[in-house]
Design goal:
Number of helices: 8
Shape: globular
Number of strands: 12
Helix content: 25-40%
Strand order of the largest sheet: 1-2-3-4-5-6-7-8
Order of helices and strands: HEEEEEEEHEHHHHEEEHEH
Number of domains: 2
Largest sheet: 8 strands, antiparallel
Radius of gyration: 20 Å
Strand content: 15-25%
Distance between the termini: 37 Å
Bound molecules: iron/sulfur cluster
């Protein structure tokens, strides 16, 4: 019997490339965890690229868009804490609370802190911290100051650096708006599991509105519960695949929305998942 070892197609399309000097390192197409887990230390998932200077670490997805950031200075609140940017262009600060505090209070290892008000009873105001604000507000300026014409830098690395610098904050905001337009609205609720192990989802709207319009609920909208047509769902899937583009390989979960999607007929739910 002849065994043929096939190359991983992702290794061909995303070969690892590295550059390291005293004050700057760049690793392209780093491969981290494939499986999502709930653990008490920072874990990164999927394939992404990492830029590290003496002061900061920035990480980018396969579309050259920033996805994680943190400062390395003493002023940063805790070395295990970091900033994450979502596909909706929201920034989240993951606070460990010294681990013991958060896990004892809520059973999670990290507490996500947002830039907008939420119904969370816990959490400080990390975005008001100067070092967090510096990275959150100023990552693009800090990135722009990283030289990309060094003679010791491989051409592939210099090209990548030029590509990540070209994507502006306005580009990221516009892309998030396109995401909301494809689905019909910003996703306001995620499955609790996405919090436990911090996995990312692609939102697909198969029905608008919700059933009960409960008085206490802050995420409801005024839309009556209405099913989307199979044609509209196919259109969304096509547009979402184009939007997530090269970074699609980093997603393994589809979130069927909006709020009461599971009230849709079983064949529409099954057909939506199968079409994706
Ligand atoms: S989203 Fe759920 S909890 Fe909120 S009003 Fe609708 S049915 Fe009630």
């Amino acid at each position: 019997m002849l065994l043929v070892q096939l190359n991983d197609p992702f290794e061909i399309t995303h070969p690892e490339t590295a550059f390291a000097s005293e004050d700057l390192s760049i690793f392209l197409n780093v491969r981290e965890n494939k499986e999502y887990v709930k653990v008490s230390y920072p874990v990164k998932y999927g394939i992404f690229s990492r830029l590290e200077t003496r002061e900061m670490i920035l990480e980018f997805n396969l579309n050259h868009e920033i996805r994680h950031a943190r400062s390395k200075t003493r002023q940063w609140l805790h070395p295990s804490e970091w900033l994450k940017r979502t596909a909706g262009n929201d920034w989240i600060y993951y606070s460990s609370g010294g681990y013991a505090g958060v896990v004892e209070a809520i059973g999670e290892y990290y507490l996500p802190n947002f830039t907008y008000p939420t119904n969370s009873l816990l959490g400080g105001r990390p975005f008001a911290e100067p070092e967090v604000a510096k990275i959150h507000q100023g990552w693009h300026e800090l990135l722009a100051a990283v030289p990309d014409n060094r003679p010791d830098m491989p051409a592939r690395i210099a090209e990548w650096l030029g590509q990540v610098k070209q994507i502006t904050k306005a580009d990221l905001e516009n892309k998030a708006q396109t995401l909301f337009e494809i689905c019909g609205a910003r996703t306001t609720v995620l499955p609790p599991d996405a919090r436990h192990s911090d996995y990312n989802v692609i939102p697909l709207t198969i029905a608008d509105g919700c059933l009960y319009k409960c008085r206490f609920c802050k995420v409801k909208n005024k839309k009556p519960f209405t099913l989307r047509t199979p044609g509209d769902i196919r259109r969304q899937i096509q547009d979402l695949a184009g939007l997530f583009s090269s970074d699609l390989v980093n997603y393994n979960a589809l979130f069927l929305g909006e709020h009461d999607a599971l009230n849709a007929p079983a064949d529409l739910i099954a057909c939506s998942a199968a079409t994706w």
